[in-house]
Protein: Putative transposase
Organism: Couchioplanes caeruleus
Amino acid sequence: MTFYLVGGAGASTASVVSADHLPSNRARLYPSDTSDAEWQVIAPLIPAGQPSRRGGRRPVHSRRDIVDAIRYLAHNGCVWRALPADFPPWQTVYDYHARWSTDGTVNRLHNTLRDQVRTAAGREPEPSAAIIDSQSVRAAETVARASRGYDAGKRVNGRKRHIAVDTIGLLLVVAVSAASVQDRQAGRVLLWAVHTVCRKVTMTWADSGYSGTLVDFAAALGVTVTIVAKFAGQFGFHVLPRRWVVERTLSWISRCRRTVRDYERLPEHHAAIVQWSMIIIMSRRLARHHRP
């Protein structure tokens, strides 16, 4: 059982790399493009420098154009080679995506925006409660057999994303595994990750797929897990207390077409695309909040 997990607390001021960015001369043509207000929020959190480890060359492309290209791909679900010609070359965009997915840039950007959204909503940056759930997605032929599996319950051959969210639906942790991994197994990984990065979380809600020994495991961490079961005799969809919050977040994530099916060769890249889907939502919220 192999997981790739990302999440955690927002970056401190010292850990955020700010830089002078090259200006963008692109016209903002697509719904996924950053507005000027959004870019003011995002720009201080995007590092400078080339993604290549060889170094030596000065940056050629605007970071805003790189970010907009990644957002375009996440939002529209196109293949890398089909990025519109007004973006930087797809190879360059992919290099930045790969580097930012593994060096902590996407994680810091996502978590800092999440803390800012919580603060703007009148809440503490760190939550005290969480809700967990999972979603199986079919894998494209680009996904290696070693990192996929079959979810017999959902009849899905692919990967499964396991998420923990706060009580307003903002993403805390995302883990990516083969779809064959049981929720009870993944629940331990999620709870441990949430406990590690959000020490104030003492209450977690989950569905019946997480019942059993997970409750005892959580108790050892000082976390109370409440199982929200379906109503007696329930058929079809019903809004269930607390669980609707995480189900809504899964719906938000699926608005980005790149997440509807898993096309990523590496699970860490799928986790990053999930975070980008939430970055789009949160940056727009913050832009509205800061609009004069």
Q: What stands out?
A: The CA atoms of residues 79 and 227 lie 40 Å apart. The longest strand covers residues 129-138. Residues 125-264 form a domain with the Nucleotidyltransferase; domain 5 fold (CATH 3.30.420.10). DSSP finds eight helices and seven strands in the chain.
